[in-house]
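To assess whether the prediction recovers the assembly geometry, we first specified each molecular entity separately, as shown.
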Amino acid sequence: MSRFRVAVHIVPRRGILDPQGKAVADALHTLGFAAVREVRVGRHVVIDVDAADRDEADRAARAMCERLLANPVTEDFEIASVAAQPASPGAPARSPDAANAAAGVR
Amino acid sequence: MRFGIVRFPGSNCDEDAFHAAADALGEEAVFLWHKDHDLQGADVVLLPGGFSYGDYLRAGAIARFSPIMREVAAHAERGGPVLGICNGFQILCEAGLLPGALLRNVEQCFICEQVRVRVENAGTIFTSGYEQGQILRLPIAHGEGRFTGDDALLDRLESNGQVAFRYVNAAGEPTEAANPNGSMRNIAGLVSERGNVLGMMPHPERAVDAVLGSTDGLALFESLLARVGA
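The predicted structure of the complete assembly is given in tokenized form:
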């Protein structure tokens, strides 16, 4: 059993009105970022999970999204990264940035 | 008739619901703890307003996994009446006992005011005490009340008569200006396909005393008494 840090992105589905994203887009335009076409504001969830391998960690995170983390009526999700973690007892968890860097995710 | 009012951590309209059922209607009401598995013989299960689990993740998303929700779902499956008000409506949608979802209000802010809703289907067990098309004054107090579903769902709700209440103006028209939260098709409340589960964002339980500004909510409880308690 190894430990993995899974990062999940959950965003409002396209076609669903996202007033928060629209307000942010308007603000970016005001700041001069005229090239911004659309903004959708969602949620980033980081889960530390024990699993036999990366695939199992990925599958578990997908099941979590389908059952709880995302609302299938209004939201889409994607597994952004699955990064192996040191699992020695008492070891401090690494920061998401470090985990992402290890997984080659920016 | 006995009302079972579920208390989740963060419920805050439970006492109002109790007052409406026990004092205004004069029927029996009991509180049900969310961790229990016993509906205590309740004829009507009421999921009150509030902020269960702090609205963490999404409003109602965590409360739907409370232990008692298994019994609430079984009660609904048997055809038993379930009334979800405000946060209760959100929980019912998250639990899949009602279709659709309730998203952040279109203006992004919490709204606390009195609104007008029109009775769209006076044939349900919750609304038979109203006239079809009657306009009610009811308070709303929510941040996430924007009812959302795809067109196929909305069409189905309309053709099945599942839309119970719609936000309207003084003339009874469901205009955009009369829609406080951006709900699709101005939907303020809907019933399940079988008609025994009602979810609504406005608070009928806070509109049972003239001193509180409206008594238009009382007939909803009287409808239940006439149709369920008889």
